[in-house]
Design a protein that fits this description.
Layout: H1 2-12, H2 22-53, H3 60-67, H4 71-77, H5 81-106, H6 111-128, H7 130-137, H8 145-162, H9 165-170, H10 183-200, H11 211-223, H12 225-232, H13 265-276, H14 282-289, H15 294-306, E1 310-312, E2 325-327, H16 329-342
Antiparallel strand pairs: 1-2
Helix pairs in contact: 2-3, 2-5, 2-7, 2-13, 2-16, 5-6, 5-8, 6-7, 7-10, 8-10, 10-11, 11-12, 13-14, 14-15
Length: 344
């Protein structure tokens, strides 16, 4: 009895005395990559939907329609609409941190220079990605309790960064009194309110033009009036253009945009199977993609051929010879885009 229980528990947590075959391991990795690619595609679609119709207009139907996936696929990856928005929010936060973290950490000259470098990078990111900036600052306010809780965590982290101004104030004679305990939280709220208002204005200018006024607002409670006035007169930094790179779902752009097809799980499996085994037959592709109906695999292959994504190099062979499928240059681009979206 004890042996049965132990074995059952091992299966439940995924343990097994049998080694996983290379074929099964490759299949699992391929399945995981496809799921990640579909998730990235839906995050991209959700970000674009929110930029067009706002958080309130972001429905499951709009996201799946824009992404070209089924509702079943959506609910395989997300529990709800809010769950999807939270994933988009976290993805955007990660991108902002990636943009602002290095400038903040490498800035020379202490707290003021660090905050200035980090804030300038954030404003520059919002200028480059206004849709994601609006999603983070404006749309998140109406996205539900889980998103608001995550937002509160982010703002608390920003307040802790600004609260280091207490140390800077202790080293400056211009700071005559200790700022109140909630100073950092108030500054974060004020900065966000200014950015929020600008994002709602039609045809607003570049947000980086706010760097000096916002820095004056930030340093005044800690370092005094003269330090704030100095920030107002500093030259605005020139933001270098980022090197071009392939579009990804994290850019708020769909790497597979323009593909006139519904990107189903089975379609991705078929493309991945052909990419991994050029020259494979119908039967081999069906086995690799987990499709048991030969009629269905034939329809999928015919559809992908019409779309110009695959080609049958076995055509013209003697009757009875197996087909030999390969990706076309267009198909290779799609497969590469899937890999980029999957982060592989």
């Amino acid at each position: 009895m004890a042996t049965v229980t132990k074995t059952s528990s091992a299966k439940q947590i995924g343990l097994s005395s049998r080694p996983i075959s290379p074929r099964k391991r490759a299949g699992r990795e391929e399945t995981s990559r496809i799921c990640v690619a579909q998730r990235a595609r839906m995050l991209s679609a959700a970000a674009r939907v929110v930029s067009e119709v706002g958080c309130g207009g972001m429905t499951v139907s709009r996201v799946t329609s824009r992404a070209g996936v089924s509702r079943r696929t959506f609910y395989d990856l997300f529990d709800s609409r809010e769950d999807c928005f939270l994933a988009v929010f976290n993805d955007a936060i990660a991108r902002v941190e990636s943009a602002a973290g290095p400038p903040y950490e490498h800035a020379q000259g202490g707290w003021v220079e660090q905050v200035r470098a980090g804030l300038g990078a954030v404003l520059g990111f919002f200028d480059e990605q206004p849709g994601l900036g609006s999603l983070l600052v404006v749309d998140a306010l109406a996205a539900g309790p889980r998103v608001l809780a995550r937002r509160a965590e982010v703002l608390a982290g920003l307040a802790r960064v600004l609260d280091r101004g207490h140390t800077a104030a202790g080293r400056r004679s211009s700071a005559k009194a200790e700022p109140p305990p909630l100073t950092a939280e108030g500054i974060v709220g004020g900065v966000l309110a200014v950015i929020h208002a600008r994002l709602l204005e039609d045809g607003h200018g570049r947000l980086q033009g706010l760097l000096n006024p916002l820095m004056g607002m930030i340093v005044h409670p800690y370092l005094g009036r003269s330090a704030a006035a100095k920030e107002l007169t500093r030259p605005s930094p020139k933001t270098p253009r980022r090197a071009s790179r392939p579009s990804t779902a994290q850019d708020g752009q769909d790497p597979l945009a323009g593909l006139d097809m519904r990107l189903t799980y089975r379609t991705l499996r078929v493309l991945a199977a052909i990419a991994s085994q050029p020259g494979a037959s119908n039967r081999r592709i069906a086995e690799q993609a987990g499709i048991h109906d030969q009629g269905q695999i034939s329809k999928l292959l015919t559809r992908l051929t019409r779309l110009g994504l695959i080609a049958n190099n076995g055509e013209g062979q003697a009757k009875g010879e197996a087909n030999a499928w390969t990706l076309t240059p267009k198909g290779e681009q799609i497969e590469q885009a899937i890999q980029i979206g999957a982060g592989s």
